[in-house]
């Protein structure tokens, strides 16, 4: 007998809500470390990164609620079925953005990730790509310079002269900045 069913195929007593809460707890140390380390390098960046995380998370959760309200679900039903997956998406979007990203780029990246990539494909577990990375790509393509850029600074961190420190998705971004490329080639 052949049975055709959607995933997951293994039953477990743990619910999606419990798993997503565990994921949120697992992401918190990395979020805190990122804010603290950027704050040690430059205090303004620590606060900005915390603001980016908060904006991304709040807009992701709000966009899921608004989408479900537009689908004529009752607010109490939405609260009862809330599984924290949009919060995970918001945290991941915030962790993938620069601390210097514009506020509207952060919000729209989260809204795109939740509504377009996640909810329009059927919700949790039915999306064809990772919503957070799709949100980051959307922000990079749609906003370019407002998305952020390479953050670099020459500071002492933990009493150690760091030299040229660069943060970003990849070090390849320095290839587009001739001044930084010449700095890197000298060291």
What does this protein structure show overall?
This protein is mainly alpha-helical and 187 residues long. Helices cover 59% and strands 5% of the residues. It has seven helices and four strands. A hairpin with a 2-residue loop joins strand 2 (156-157) and strand 3 (160-161). Helix 5 crosses helix 6. The longest helix has 28 residues, at 43-70. Mean pLDDT is 81; it is low at 158-163 and 181-187.
What would the principal axes of the Cα set say about the shape? globular
SS-based structural class?
Answer: mainly alpha
Mean pLDDT: 81
Q: Could you estimate the helical fraction of the residues in percent?
A: 55-70%
Please tally the β strands and state the result.
4
Number of helices: 7
User: Order of helices and strands, N to C?
Assistant: HHHHHHEEEEH
Unreliable runs: 158-163, 181-187
- Terminal-residue CA separation: 66 Å
What about the largest sheet? 2 strands, antiparallel
Taking strands numbered 1, 2, ... along the chain, how are they ordered across the largest sheet?
1-4
Calculate Rg over CA atoms: 19 Å
Q: Assess the beta-strand content as a share of residues.
A: 5-15%
